[in-house]
Amino acid sequence: MAPLGPFEPAPRLGLAVSGGADSLAMALLAKAWATERAGSVLAIVVDHGLRPASAGEAVLTRERLAMRGIPVHAIRLDIPPGAALAARARAARYAALIAACAERGIPHLLLGHHAADQAETLLIRAISVSGEAGLAGIAALRETDQVRLLRPLLTIPPARLRATLRADGLEWIEDPSNADQRALRARLRRLRADRDGVGPATAALAAAATAAGVARRIGDEDVAAFLGASATLRPEGFAVLRPGPVPLPALGALIQAISGGQFPPRTASLAALARDPRPATLSGVRLLPAGRLGPGLLLVREATAIAPPIPAETVRWNGTRWDGRFRLACGAVPPADLSLGALGEATASLRRVSRLPSAVLRTLPALRREETLFAVPHLGYPDAQRCASVPLVFDPARPAACAPFMAA
Q1: Are the CB atoms for 245 and 276 separated by under 8 Å?
Q2: Residue from 293, 296, 267 nearest 282 by CA
Q3: What is the pLDDT of residues 235-248, one digit of tens each?
Q4: Would you give the distance in Å from CA 145 to the centre of its chain?
């Protein structure tokens, strides 16, 4: 835990516990660590409901945790069937875990990824021709606006975690989906033939991830410095980039921020554009001549790629970001019956209050009551009082390189 600190006195930890060996061992270790510091832990058990046995497994996990004096908060999710089920379930689980911590004022959420998980992640990213940042693997620490995500076990082989449970006399659940050969991770796990995670290949991959993580941090600092000197990022959700070549990671980070995506564009798609920035569309972002906004290029959200409207209350209550980019400012309570979506083509009446290009205006977040335009907060339209009731913040998930740049 030391490299993930410093921690406050009497630290409060949330623990993502699935019932498997890794997360149960993490729960035991975290409880001991927190107790030594007069802190506390809360295990959060999320039942996806994707397997018939999952409900019973969640109950069994809660009982096992209670036997060790670890308090539990249980969450049941209802994931509709359809495409990308595993990815949607993973996203819903993370959202539920983070929300549970935020609601209780818990600043740290611990996750049980270990050295073998790190090795498999590196292999997956190498196969997908990930960039240098991706080859740093799973981050040990990632800060969100609500909690810090901590992975203290990334250098620990899974065999040691199972040994910890055996020494404590605590059994665990084996999830059959971990061996499902339809998943790339499961196939790589079988090919590695190192279930205990103590082999030289696993150790080498984990060490490579650590070294790449150091390089990624240094690279993030360089990218942030370049963006701070060469780009202007606006709270309306667009950017202006000065003329000339751009370091590939910097352009990728900027496009990721403007698109609201979880990852930057693939390296192959990005390289030519970074060498010679020009009008183009990539990963839901348009690059256009900046025109009256200055020399260089305007980066703006592609209108046809923007997410559909959602209830404004959704953005407030569960931390959802509309279009992966905009959230309500802390404490804001939107009027009832409002939806949040793109302004779209309803821009004619706004010419008198804004000189922003049409390409930007169409993408601005707007609030509507049924079909009637209620407010465009970033333009102060129709009046400051109404917009103050629904303050929107441009705050997408973004790479570390963009964090200081966006804060500035």
Answers
A1: yes
A2: 267
A3: 999 999 999 999 99
A4: 10
Task: Tell me the residue length of the chain.
Answer: 408
Other CB atoms within 10 A of residue 317 CB: 12
Residue in 305, 310, 224 with CA at minimum distance from that of residue 258: 305
Biggest alpha carbon distance in the chain? 72
Residue 151 is encoded by which pair of tokens? 């992975």
Coil, helix or strand at residue 244: coil
Q: Around Cβ 157, how many Cβ atoms within 10 Å?
A: 22
Bridge partners, residue 243, by sequence: none
Cα of 371 vs its chain's centroid, Å: 32
Given a contact cutoff of 8 angstroms between Cβ atoms, the answer to whether 144 and 261 are in contact is no
Domain spans, the chain: 2-209, 230-304+398-407, 306-394
**275: number of Cβ within 10 Å:** 12
Structure tokens at 237: 């959700």
| Residues 76-123 pLDDT 10s | 988 887 877 877 888 889 989 999 999 999 999 999 999 999 988 888
* β-strands 108-110, 12-16 pairing: parallel
Amino acid at 354: S
Burial 54-71 (b: 16+ CB within 10 A, else e): beebbebbbebbeeeebe
CA atoms within 13 A of residue 215's CA, in its CB half-sphere: 14
Find the helix or strand (DSSP H, E) in which 110 lies.
strand 108-110
Kindly report, residue by residue over 137-190, the tens digit of the pLDDT.
Answer: 888 998 887 899 999 999 999 999 999 999 999 999 987 777 778 788 888 888
CA dist 145 and 136 (Å) reads 23
Q: What angle do CA 82, 88, 92 make, to 5 degrees?
A: 135
Reported for 230-233, long-range contacts at CB under 8 A and 24+ positions apart, including other chains, are 231/405, 232/294, 233/257, 233/402, 233/405, 233/406
Outline where 82-142 has alpha helix (H).
85-103, 115-127
Residues 353, 341: contact at Cβ < 8 Å? no
Question: How many whole angstroms separate alpha carbon 32 and alpha carbon 68?
Answer: 11
For the domain made up of 2-209, give the CATH fold: Rossmann fold (3.40.50)
Neighbours of 201 (CB within 10 A): 12
How many C-beta atoms surround the C-beta of residue 82 within 10 A?
Answer: 7
